[in-house]
Specification:
Elements: E1 11-13, E2 19-22, H1 23-38, E3 42-43, E4 46-52, H2 53-68, H3 78-81, H4 88-99, H5 103-106, H6 110-122, E5 131-135, H7 145-148, E6 158-163, H8 170-178, H9 201-215, H10 221-236, H11 242-256, H12 261-266, H13 269-289, H14 292-297, H15 307-320, H16 322-327, H17 330-342, H18 354-370, E7 377-380, H19 382-386
Parallel strand pairs: 2-7, 4-6
Antiparallel strand pairs: 1-2, 3-4, 5-6
Amino acid sequence: MAGRQLGGAFGEAAGSDTVRIDAQQAAAKAARAMQDFLQKDELRGVPVAIISKDQLDHLRKEYVEAWESGNGRPIVSEGAKAYGGLIAREKEYFNARIDRLGPVATELGPAERGMLLHQLKSYTTPTQGPATVRLPMTMATRGDADAQGREHYQEAEAAVVLVPASTIPAKEWAAHFLSDYTRSDGARINPGQLGNIPGTPEQWQLFISLHEGSHVSGAGEAQADLMAATQYAQIMGADDGVVQAFADLRAIDAVMRFDHEKQAADYGWATAEKLDLAAELGADFMNEEITPERLHDMRFDELADYSASVTSFTETLKDANPEAFAARDMTGLAAATKQLLDHDAFGKPPDAGPEWHIAERFAEAAERVTGERDYGYRYVNQAEAAQKPETRTASAEAAPSSQL
């Protein structure tokens, strides 16, 4: 990885290929940044209401405890049902956050707020969120910034962002992204099937919240990934494996959902490509070279279309090991991919086409998420982190800023 930094804000070199990171320090830094994010009233000039899943969970627990002790009203009141089953204290919190949108909030009556909440809740996942809705709600039909272009894109009047909880471990996030939720009988991945995924729950909450916040400006999925990776690097100040792990999940996801047209278009190979670029350039480059103006302009970045090549590779892989593909068995799929590469199923460099590169990248990602290949980052407790080996820094030639 060209831009990888050994050592830095909270990491020290731990052997030739491993960066040891103080998990508590990293979590605390991400949590502080998250608190700042939750207090924002606007993102990139657009008024926002940021709704915290942590706060919703706290209010629900508090309300249920009061009800069980006999001091509260029924858990779900008639009024709450209008808001998709939201209980009373959640409803109060939701409305208070929406009211911070100012003039836009006055246009949202009970029916509109009910629709908004329903739309937010329709995006929720087993990992409890996240979601972004640009207002007016017809914004969703106008397309993202890259599709509309600079001359035609209409900025949102406001937006509502639901951010995920801070308690979800990296392995649970990874298991969710690797599972098939497009159908009821789709394969589900157990976190126990995965290797060590870099990052603390707080770091993953921050990264995904930054991704959601990027949608406020009209960024599509790939652009939001790149914007999130840039902001995350600027906040955390050092490479810590989170961006690389997310890139791996995007690469796998792009292949596994190839037959779901809309999702493949939104979460295509370009998402992995953008995150790979961010990981390769590294945190130092992001901090030194990416200006706020360039960051905001990323929403208009045009993306290469790899759909035909991804489909070609995926169909070949599916034919090679249909059982592993149906079960989303990453170990089996990595082995099948490497066997296809060994037999030159996609040609040989330098004459190989995009399928060869997709196959190489997919196998690498699959091996890392299962633990067969190491990420090179080890999160340790404070006592272990205090026993610091000699710090080393590996730098590489910075890529020109035009790449981002």
